[in-house]
Write a structure and sequence with these properties.
Layout (H helix, E strand, L loop, with lengths): L23 E12 L2 H4 L8 E2 L2 E2 H14 L1 H4 L10 E8 L4 E12 L4 H19 L7 E11 L7
Antiparallel strand pairs: 1-5, 1-6, 2-3, 4-5
């Protein structure tokens, strides 16, 4: 049976001590899939939609970047990190769906999976917020980790 690293011997919450870990290059990539529907997608012009609140994708990217940097403020057991880079890309996949990819990179002692997932999540919530006046039939379908490299374990 695996032991949770965020619980001490008395089953009480703790923050994992990463002091003895080696600094390695760590990258995490997360994806959010979103259904916007044809009503919203048809309004996009040259891969962007400008609403009364401003440009949807540009604003969502900035919100996602801010979210990555604030992850340790939002998720109690996440360590504050010095981020090397954040790249968020939003693509229209077809006449109803978009995909948000968030990549986060650090040189550090702990992974950045939660930061990438938080960035993709907040970017998708921002798209929802900016488009809800047009339609509230949007669905954030899936948010998942695609890739994690660095440290002891990595997934691809």
């Amino acid at each position: 049976m695996n032991k949770f690293t965020h619980l001490n011997k008395n089953n009480q919450p703790k923050m994992v001590n990463v002091g003895d870990k080696k600094v390695t290059k760590r990258i995490a990539i997360a994806k959010a899939e979103m259904f916007l529907g044809t009503e919203i997608i048809s309004l996009f012009n040259d891969k962007e939609l400008t609403t009364k609140k401003g440009p949807v994708f540009q604003t969502a990217i900035i919100a996602g970047i801010q979210a990555v940097k604030k992850t340790s403020d939002l998720i109690p057991m996440c360590h504050p990190l010095i981020i090397n880079g954040i790249d968020i890309d939003i693509e229209i996949m077809d006449n109803e769906n978009i995909e948000i990819i968030c990549q986060v990179e650090i040189d550090g002692k702990t992974g950045v999976e939660m930061e990438a997932l938080t960035g993709a999540s907040v970017a998708s919530l921002t798209v929802y917020d900016m488009c809800k006046a047009i339609s509230q039939k949007m669905v954030i379908k899936e948010i998942k980790l695609l890739e994690k490299t660095g440290g002891k374990s990595g997934i691809k």
